[in-house]
Amino acid sequence: MGKRRNAQEIAQLKLKLKTDRLWSHSRIDTFHNCSYAYLLKYIKNIREKHVGIYSYLGGAFHDILENYYNNKCSYDSMIQEVDNILLNTDLSDMRFVKNDEEKHNKIREKYYACIKHFFTNHVPIKQNVLTEKEITVRILNHWFIGYIDAVYKEDDIYHIIDYKTSTMFPKNKIPQKGQQLTLYALFLIQNGIPASNIRIKWNFLKYVNVSFIHKGVEKNYNYERHVLVAKLARFIRQDLKELKFSYDVITAILETCEQENSLKNLPQKVQDKYIINDCYVNIPITSSSIMSLQEYLHLTILNIFQLEKKYETTHDETPFHKEVCDSDSYWCTNICGYGGHCRCFSAYMSKKNIFNKEHSNDTDFLKQLGII
After folding, report:
1. Half-sphere exposure of 365 toward its Cβ, with a 13 Å CA cutoff?
2. Going by C-beta distance under 8 Å and a sequence separation of 6 or more, which residues neighbour residue 250?
């Protein structure tokens, strides 16, 4: 990613802003996701034991897009950069799932296919795109620093984009997940741009947006890129039937298209029907969402201050401990960089091992009965 401020430059910025601490949304996110990880990273200053594969690849793909929009690499060379990164990932034995080869390979195959499809089919933004731009935002008496992945102006509208290599968020999670982009929008608002002239959105790299007309009805879908043609097959089959292709020819065409995950072997008339774009998801900016963000950040910071003050006096880590449950185990095992330092996850694993030992006879009996 682009050059970011070092410790000395951060200190100078704090003096300029007259604040003793600069916050970031990722710092707040760390506390929200795992208060113990916050303790390790921001209070005890313990470096993460390892960089997870998702963080590594996400950062690498951001860099490629940044280089492309800064004219440091060509469109065609992006996929070669991707291939090099994926090869290095395999050679370094980075894992999507630790200790489960089958699950790792399944996720790897899908993830790689989606990312390769994005970088060979990315629809470039025509306007001048600014990348990795630093912003500072004031929330009450707190100052935040952030870096926008991409921003551009089209007519009087400012577009802020955050690249995501994750799975798309459920609709009910969008308000909470979109708070970082709302914070970035506040930078423009605080610099005189009306909220009505700002658009904030994610570009989910692993997905593609397809729009078309089918039987007079407009269709609009977001598909995972690796199954693009498979998802469109039933519509394409109907298109080819209407063009009087035989069953055998239609089957052969579809097989080729699915193997290549491309529409390029279809008749031009059929290709032109399907409008394919990157998968952008817009986040509404409302007075309610802005107030909610400000309240959330302020209350979280007050909570952090309270816990930090207690820790300074007692050095007791207990208030930062998180009760790890089964739904957290994938994150703790494969994504969090503190696996070797985390007492919370160690406690969870110890309990799980004790439970498994205590119920091993029950498990054997249930297996004998064919129940599990």
Report:
1. 4
2. 237, 240, 241
For residue 202, CA distances in Å to 44, 112, 119 come to 33, 20, 16
Q: Which of 94, 120, 122, 121 is nearest to 108 (CA)?
A: 94
Indicate the SS3 state at residue 213: strand
Supply 62's token pair: 């951001």
pLDDT, residue 371, reads 46
Q: What is the pTM of this model?
A: 0.89
- Helix ranges (H only) for 70-100 are 75-91
Place of tokens 């439970």: 355
Q: Please, are residues 69 and 129 in contact by the beta-carbon 8 Å criterion?
A: yes
Query: What is d(CA 91, CA 277) in angstroms, rounded to the nearest whole number?
Result: 32
**pLDDT recorded at residue 4:** 83
Secondary structure (3-state) at 295: helix
Whole-number Å distance between alpha carbons of 31 and 28: 5
Residue 285 class from Cβ within 10 Å (0-12 exposed, 13-18 middle, 19+ buried)? Answer: buried
Q: How far apart are CA 223 and CA 231, in angstroms?
A: 7
Model pLDDT for residues 161-210, shown as the tens digit of each residue: 999 999 999 999 999 999 999 999 999 999 999 999 999 999 999 999 99
What residue ranges do the domains of the chain occupy? 216-277
Residues ≥6 apart with Cβ < 8 Å to 181:
160, 162, 200, 201, 202, 283
| Helix (H) or strand (E) segment spanning residue 287 | helix 287-314
Which phi and psi (to 5°) does residue 203 adopt?
Answer: -115, 105
What is the crossing angle of helices 101-121 and 75-91, to 10°? 170
User: Beta-carbon neighbour count of residue 191 at 10 Å?
Assistant: 9
pLDDT tens for each residue of 121-144: 999 999 999 999 999 999 999 999
Return the structure tokens found at 309.
């003050």
Provide the b/e sequence for 16-46 (b: ≥16 CB within 10 Å): eeeeeebbebebbebbeebbbbbbbbeeeee
Nearest to 146, CA basis, from 160, 159, 156, 157: 160
Rounded alpha-carbon distances, angstroms, from residue 82 to 17, 25, 111, 117, 127? 39, 28, 12, 11, 24
